[in-house]
User: Which sequence fits this backbone?
């Protein structure tokens, strides 16, 4: 009987001691393990070999774990990436999950937790690669079904999206930050006849004018210094599909003129080229700004505005559709639970849901989503109630912060005790969970926590 080859894992950590302990433990469990001391070294290895899973530290010199995560995901979207973060760095853990990390593990590491997660990630990966249905689910998630909204205002948006999806007219999608503009753009694409074609999005704020131009329209090799290879541009990439110009209000005026030409004639010219080519692209534009006002201020071309604004979809801010909040919370809670299966939170108290529904949410749906995720990630008991809200609010009071910047040296015992007290408060007073996260015994917490000011209340 021949056994299957052992799965190859990649560990990335700039602390060699840490990496070695971890590697030994995983080799003992029958894995083949490579260790990279930096993100750069990891990427080099990744280009040479097939890895079934990557385990990376987040904070490293030069290229950090986030960059590594992004690049690994771009090279192989299926490979699970586990990130290791310092305790208390929940926000970076959430960011990593959003970037596609499979899960995060807080340091100090518990080896049994690591091996359990590795086993689970590999199992899921095997299941997924077997299931053809996965592709279909991914598409459906981008369609209207991904959007929650029962209020009449949102029902009207959905009706409109459904009808617009059938046409090829440009659509201007506006709304405050985090209201779901990108989601609407995707729904317009995936509900319509172009859904098998590409959906390409670009944020017009992110790039300086010259780069944005070549990004959109492409350039020839040698068209400008640094153009060492020709690039076809996003309009060509989106041929047969949809191009979303996000934050269109930030597009520089000269480019607006070029965009107008493409929209009117469906023709474009790459930077440095005389040749004109035709493309079949549906253009969607999104903005959180008042474009009409920008037109009055002459910061946006009037002709382009009318061209883009043939049809408009306006997303109401969340505070004007509080009726949708409970359903959104339910959706985000289920998703956060999926992403953090080890969280003890299994239920949200009705009072908490009401408190969420009563807030104003200046960051709209995205802020609500992040808050629910924080409740799940930081929650200490099975039922999260209103008191978890303050700690979870993105911009709200965060509770005591731990800092090691001090004018004078203090005894290590005292520092330790303060750190423990801080950890307990971060866990909403739950000492058992704090002990678990710190990787020590509850009895140790009781003993050592007393050396400091103690009063953690709970
Ligand atoms: N109606 C909705 N149902 C479910 N999720 C939603 C809904 N609206 C927004 N979201 C979620 O909220 C987050 C923000 O949505 P999206 O990125 O589409 O907003 P946006 O308007 O483009 O934000 P920004 O102005 O910051 O670019 C996303 O994670 C999205 O999935
Ligand atoms: Mg957006």
Assistant:
């Amino acid at each position: 009987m021949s056994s299957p080859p052992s799965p190859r894992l990649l560990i990335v950590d700039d602390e060699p001691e840490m990496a070695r302990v971890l590697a030994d433990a995983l080799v003992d469990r029958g894995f083949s393990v490579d260790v990279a001391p930096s993100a750069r070294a990891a990427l080099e290895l990744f280009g040479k070999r097939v890895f079934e899973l990557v385990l990376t530290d987040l904070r490293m010199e030069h290229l950090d774990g986030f960059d590594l995560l992004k690049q690994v995901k771009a090279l192989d979207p299926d490979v699970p990436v586990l990130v290791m973060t310092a305790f208390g760095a929940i926000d970076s853990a959430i960011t990593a999950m959003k970037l596609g990390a499979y899960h995060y593990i807080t340091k100090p590491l518990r080896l049994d937790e690591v091996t359990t997660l590795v086993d689970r990630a590999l199992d899921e990966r095997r299941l997924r690669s077997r299931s053809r249905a996965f592709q279909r689910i991914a598409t459906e998630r981008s369609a209207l079904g991904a959007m929650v909204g029962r209020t009449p205002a949102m029902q009207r948006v959905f009706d409109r999206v459904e009808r617009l999806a059938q046409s090829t007219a440009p659509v201007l999608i506006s709304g405050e930050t985090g209201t779901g503009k990108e989601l609407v753009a995707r729904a317009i694409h995936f509900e319509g006849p172009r859904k098998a074609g590409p959906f390409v999005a670009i944020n017009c704020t992110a790039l300086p004018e010259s780069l944005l131009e070549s990004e959109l329209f492409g350039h020839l090799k040698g068209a400008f210094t640094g153009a060492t290879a020709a690039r076809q541009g996003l309009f060509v990439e989106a041929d047969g599909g949809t191009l979303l110009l996000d934050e269109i209000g930030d597009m520089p005026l000269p480019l607006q003129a070029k965009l107008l030409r493409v929209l009117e004639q469906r023709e474009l010219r790459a930077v440095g080229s005389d040749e004109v080519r035709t493309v079949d692209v549906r253009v969607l534009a999104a903005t959180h700004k008042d474009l009409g006002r920008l037109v009055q201020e002459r910061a946006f071309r009037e002709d382009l505005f009318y061209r883009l604004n043939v049809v408009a979809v306006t997303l109401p801010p969340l505070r004007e559709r509080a009726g949708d909040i409970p359903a959104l919370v339910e959706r985000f809670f289920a998703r956060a639970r999926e992403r953090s299966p080890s969280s003890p939170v299994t239920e949200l108290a009705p009072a908490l849901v009401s408190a969420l529904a009563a807030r104003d949410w200046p960051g709209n749906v995205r802020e609500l989503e992040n808050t629910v995720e924080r409740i799940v990630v930081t929650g200490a008991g099975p039922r999260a109630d209103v008191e978890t809200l303050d700690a979870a609010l993105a911009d709200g009071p965060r509770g005591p912060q731990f800092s090691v910047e001090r004018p004078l040296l203090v005894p290590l015992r005292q520092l330790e005790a303060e750190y423990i007290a801080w950890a307990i408060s971060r866990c909403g007073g739950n000492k058992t969970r704090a002990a678990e996260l710190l990787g020590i015994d509850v009895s140790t917490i009781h003993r050592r926590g007393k050396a400091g000011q103690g009063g953690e209340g709970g």
